[in-house]
Design goal:
Blueprint: H1 2-30, H2 34-42, H3 48-60, H4 68-76, H5 78-86, H6 95-106, H7 113-117, H8 121-170
């Protein structure tokens, strides 16, 4: 029982660290309005940083080789695009994809929300969203084995307690 509690407490502490990061990603997405996405979809020659950030976003959404035309097509369906961002599940992204996105986009100085803000508020907030989700995914990856171990320990404990109760009832 003590082992299960230690494992559960450890996992909870890790998750507590992740919650503000997840909240930051949601706040970034919620601050993106329809008009800024519509405007973004109509830009034919985007600022290089905006294009780079949007390609990183598209990589997370499953299109690793997105051109600007692909970005325009995706953002042209404004509500669908915003829904994809709002409902995005970082834990569903494969580790290989996260590694590539972090290496190719997130660690690159062009993926800077502050600098992108001058060209596009939408791209800046999408950059914040991606950065926060990356941090969250790292924490979740660390917590998952702890949750699994907790479930195993709890199962053993529950079985032992059930056996004990059956023996006590038999006496």
């Amino acid at each position: 029982a003590a082992d299960a509690k230690v494992i559960a407490d450890d996992a909870e502490r890790e998750l507590a660290k992740a919650k503000p990061v997840l909240a930051a990603s949601k706040a970034a997405v919620e601050s993106i309005d329809r008009d800024s996405i519509t405007n973004l979809s109509k830009v034919n020659s985007p600022n290089a940083k905006v294009e780079f950030i949007m390609q990183g976003c598209m990589a997370l959404l499953g299109n690793a080789k997105a051109s600007w035309k692909d970005v325009q097509k995706a953002t042209g369906k404004v509500m669908d695009f915003l829904t994809k961002l709002r409902e995005f599940k970082p834990e569903a992204v494969k580790d290989k994809t996260w590694e590539k996105v972090r290496k190719t986009y997130l660690k690159d100085p062009r993926f800077d929300p502050v600098e992108a803000m001058q060209a596009s508020a939408a791209a800046a907030n999408i950059a914040r969203w991606a950065q926060a989700l990356s941090e969250y995914a790292i924490v979740i990856k660390d917590v998952e084995p702890k949750k699994k171990k907790y479930a195993e320990v709890k199962s053993v404990l529950d079985t032992a307690l059930a056996t004990l109760k059956a023996k006590q009832d038999a006496v």
